[in-house]
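Incident log, structure service

09:12 report received: a user says their structure output differs between two submissions of the same chain.
09:20 pulled the input from the user's history:
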Amino acid sequence: MPLPTRRTFLKSSAALAAGLPFARLDLSGAEATQAAPFRPSAKAGLLFDDADLPRIRANARDPRFATLWQSMHDADLTADRNFLAHGVSLTNHVTHLLRVQRILERACVLYAVEGDPIQLELARTAIRKMLEYPEWDSFLEGGRQIFGLQRASEGSIALLMALAWLKGALTESEVTAIEEAILSKGAPACATAIYGMKYPDRVQGWTWSPRSEVDDFRHISLKRWPLILNVTNLKIIPTAALGLIACHFLSRRPEAAGWLELARSCARAFSTAYGSDGSYDEGVSYWGYTTLHMSLFSEALWRTQGIDDRELINYSGTARYALSMTMPTSGNDHAVANFQHIAGFTMPTVKPEFDIINFGDANGAVDVSVAAWIGRTRQDPVANFLAREIGEAKYLYGLIWYDAAAVVAPPEKSMLNQRLANDLVIARTGWTARDNVLALRSGGPANHEHADRNSVIFKAYGERLLHDPTRAAYIFKQPRWILRLTGAHTAVLINGQGHQYHDGSEGTNSSWAFARVLDYRTGPYGMTVTSDATDAYQLVNANVSRVHRTLVFLKPDIVIFLDRVVLHETAASVQVRFQANNEDLAAQLALPGGNFLITRPQASLLGRVARAPGIVVRLGKLPLAEKDGSQPYAEIDSAAAPAHEILTVCSAAPTGEPHGELSLTRAGALWHVQGTHHGQMINVTLNTAGLLPLISVA
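09:34 re-ran on a clean worker, output below:
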């Protein structure tokens, strides 16, 4: 079906506005139906009906949502009203329109649950302000048509949900105005975006709208965005929005069938961005945002049309992927500094109890909502465990789907050691803050990635001891862009240089850098893995012949690093960095006896370095001004040579407890690590005579 023009949309919207007052259509969904078993119906609400409200209201009182609910009640309504009345710029889509949307969402839910007329009036005010915006996003196709990625998409969904949350409280003219706005400002923007990603050869040209306040971003080229965004979260958001719009209007607008077909085809195509095991490359916080919108669309499609697309991806697997990426830590009394990504937008921080393995830009906790939906839809007790025990209640959709009585089961034992389909490797002793987690970033490029191939995160006894810095800048002109580069990770540098990464001129898109797991094994001792990042380094240094990292995780608290770098012709120096977590300025670093020690409030890590000619151990810090944070590291520098083997043995210990005595020796191609730590006898041999080290754990 050809893509409707803006003129067609506006004409159809005008006709809708004229005809609705006389059509006597049911605009707000069906009357209450039985909650279980659910029977799909063209008259069903997009996500819930009256029969679901008792459960939603009970969830609002459930301890699982206590923090979220309290934060909603703590909102400053006077500030909200002043902002809506005097503070909103109708050309500011990035922060102002988003704030209006969030006020609307909060007020709608509070009214639906508690019936507070103050919240109803606030919701009405927010609706009017959203409708005042002449357009809902910051991007143009062909210099004419607004296309929407987040604001038009999220705004359309928020208004559709307002029709459900405020059912019976809005006048017919208010409903008409909302629907007209969605038809004229939401649907065409969403359709244009995903049509362009589906058919990038038909895109005339994506540019920033000159009418939108996006000066912080205008330097970013959108020329390749139809290709770049096609496998990112910014495709599925407008896809879901257009799908929900189509489900809402399907029996009343002839265009809706085309919208639905376009949205379904794009959702099916996007589903291949997930691994067969449900893994997702952009990182777990983007996983939550993306999978939530996949779920919203498939749920609405099932409820209203009886079309079941709820198996497009491995939902049970993707819940386990999210669970694998959780890494709760313990809090302390040291405050974490705030940094602004752009004016008016503070980079989010993750509460320790909801901490994650944050490879790339991942900077948000796993949310309850998606896990609850998967648990409900798939009857999956492990997804229910994630929803009840691990995730954070951030999105309001969790109130709709959470089931306090759902059957819960802990993760399978196989999840204690995992090589995911995207070559992330994660090994752990358990799922609590006091359990220990080792994570290796192998695998290929992805949107929102960093230059972090073969980098490592190690959490033990409640502390991040080997750290991947959080809240890197999204804009290359900002100082914290440096946190994206290899030198900011627990990774290898060659002649002080990391592996290939892009220059940021197109945003946070993928690089070309690959790493690949060559060997992965588990046993009673724990886990071993070897990953090859040669390709990534060769892209910037043709002299590189091999960059391999081998890890031996002797559970619960010893990690052996063997870094092997080989050059083709010219000798080069190699640096191996170990990043400390100093987000709260609570890390201390020292060099006892030529080794390195990272101390955090609740635990410490001792890195023993195998002695060899040309090896120097030192401390350093990323070149950031004090206002931009402090990122210290320990570094092993191996002097210029044609080949390097650098062995480092790290042990973790709770504060106040000693580190054991371990010896690191070499005889030809054999490395030996022997001794004791915390009562554990250590006897490991690494034979490096071949391409892959042969590892023996006695």
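09:41 both user submissions now match this output. Likely a transient worker issue. Closing.
09:42 reviewer note: The chain has 17 helices and 26 strands. The mean pLDDT is 93.
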